[in-house]
Amino acid sequence: MMLQENNPVFPKWWICLLGGTLLVSTFYLPYYLTLAVKPPSEKKNSVLVEKAGVPQTGESLYRAKCAVCHGQLGEGGIGPNLTDNYWLHGNRPEDLLKVIREGVPDQGMAGWANILTLQNIKNIRGFVLNLKSTNPPHAKAPQGKEYPAR
Ligand code: HEC
């Protein structure tokens, strides 16, 4: 009776339960600390990262998203020349913002409003506005209406 009180015998099922719990926690704890507690935006997903709004320069965004159609220097290609004074959709800063956000889907340019943050779109617009009168080589012929230089 005395012996039993100092060295209590735990039932087998209790020991198994304890062992099982310890076993699970050895694997779960490191997992929880390293992977599970990160917010979703930190997981690798480029769309999520872009949506989360990591600000990028207009130049790097232009080269990555626009140069394929408008040329590395804005000289034009599939899309119009962005360095001259001729514009199809207007040359005011708000005209450019609208075209970049909404695109011209039936003419082959998709909108970027659902892909890039407003801030990043404004960064690109700033870069495009600075292309004005840079006279790149191989410039595409003017399209649209001529606007007085701003
Ligand atoms: C898949 C090709 C393509 C991509 C990519 C593209 N564009 Fe365009 N873009 C066009 C075409 C084609 C037009 C002319 C639409 C028309 O004829 O009305 C255009 C028109 C424009 C205009 C208006 C030009 C004018 O004369 O009024 C601007 C500004 C412009 N794009 C900026 C951008 C920017 C900034 C990006 C990158 C975020 C971009 N585009 C990406 C094809 C593209």
Q: What is the element layout, followed by pairings?
A:
Elements: H1 2-6, H2 12-36, H3 46-51, H4 58-65, H5 67-70, E1 86-87, H6 93-102, H7 118-129, E2 145-146
Antiparallel strand pairs: 1-2
Helix pairs in contact: 4-7, 6-7
Bound molecules: heme C.
The site of heme C has 24 residues, from helix 5, helix 6 and helix 7.
Keywords:
mainly alpha, 150 residues, binds heme C, rod-shaped, Cytochrome Bc1 Complex, Chain D, domain 2, two-stranded antiparallel ribbon
Write a concise synopsis of the structure shown.
This protein has 150 residues and is an all-alpha fold. The protein contains 7 helices and 2 strands, in the order αααααβααβ.
